[in-house]
Amino acid sequence: MQAEVPVQDNRTASDNAAADRITGLDALELGPRRSKAALGGRVWRSAWPKLLAIAIVILAWQTVVWAQWKPEYVLPGPATVFGDLGTLITTGDFWDGVRLTMLRAVTGFALAVLIGTLVGAAVSRFAPLRAAIGSLITGLQTMPSIMWFPLAILLFQISESAIMFVVIIGAAPSVANGLISGIDYVPRTWLRVGQVLGMKGFAKYRHLILPASLPSFISGLKQGWAFSWRSLMAGELLVIVPGALSIGVRMQQARDLSESSLVISFIIVVLVIGILIDVLFNAADNALRKRWGLTGN
Q1: Which of helix, strand or coil describes residue 198?
Q2: What is the predicted pLDDT for the residue at 240?
């Protein structure tokens, strides 16, 4: 008696074979591998514009202080601020605050990415859903995060949940729009080729649509992080949770004590963290562009 081959096994084998063919076609689009330049030269080329910009800002700052636009106890000079910042970063309390703030940032952003990805995939897949909430997502993206805090406090009182609510609702629409835009701009030719090769259902999304939408999706992630970071900083200044001494709380305490140097020090800390995260996103974006041959030789 002849054994029957399970339908599911045939479908899986067919999807895998189609995926292999798609991968082979993708290889035609990839840029050639380039030899790596000297590490020191690449680091210097990347670093010197940033160092020059920092030098210009510090010089302009010192010039304003020399002009005595404000008393020095209100606007201290770079030497005073960097001296206090150097002392600040050697304390354990400072790093406890940074750890708390970054834990909030990573948690809120991860939840925003999960929600935004699910919403973006659903909206791009179902036309009636896009017609219903497509414009709403864009409207939420343009909504100032500060407007959500009164509602968040009413819903969750003074708590971590109030901060997380605003962080998530500030970042998720950008992530969703990034994925929707990426899926919309997948070339129609690629979709037809995938159809000819038997790609459909989940395999079509996994092996064709989602990889093709990655550049726009990463841009959405980057923008979503910017929104979530700004929302978090606003939340830490407005929603002071008892016992949670984050960066925003410590900055607020410095303002209450009229310690301008510490206030500026915390501004620098927030700026540096934002720059470091931006560097990570740019590295991911550049790696993706090199992978797809979108950078010059």
Answers
A1: coil
A2: 84
Structure tokens at 137: 């997502």
Q: What is the pLDDT of residue 113?
A: 92
Distance, CA of 64 to CA of 56 (rounded, Å): 12
92: which 2 tokens?
Answer: 């354990």
114-170 confidence digits (pLDDT tens)? 999 888 888 887 777 777 787 888 888 888 888 899 999 999 988 889 999 999 998
What is the value of pTM for the model shown?
A: 0.76
Long-range contacts of 22-31 (CB under 8 A, 24+ apart): 22/193, 22/194, 22/197, 22/199, 22/207, 22/208, 23/207, 25/193, 26/211, 29/292, 29/293, 30/291, 30/292, 30/293, 31/290, 31/291, 31/292, 31/293, 31/294, 31/295
Asked if residues 146 and 234 have their Cβ atoms less than 8 Å apart, the reply is yes
Identify the pLDDT of residue 211. 75
Name the residue among 108, 118, 177, 109 with its Cα closest to residue 142: 177
CA–chain centroid gap for 226, Å, is 6
Q: Which residue has the higher pLDDT, 158 or 19?
A: 158
Residues 292 and 234: their CA atoms lie apart, in Å, by: 38
Give the whole-angstrom CA distance, residue 145 versus residue 148. Answer: 6
- How high is the pLDDT of residue 13? 55
Task: Quickly list DSSP for 83-119.
Answer: HHHHHHTTSHHHHHHHHHHHHHHHHHHHHHHHHHHHH
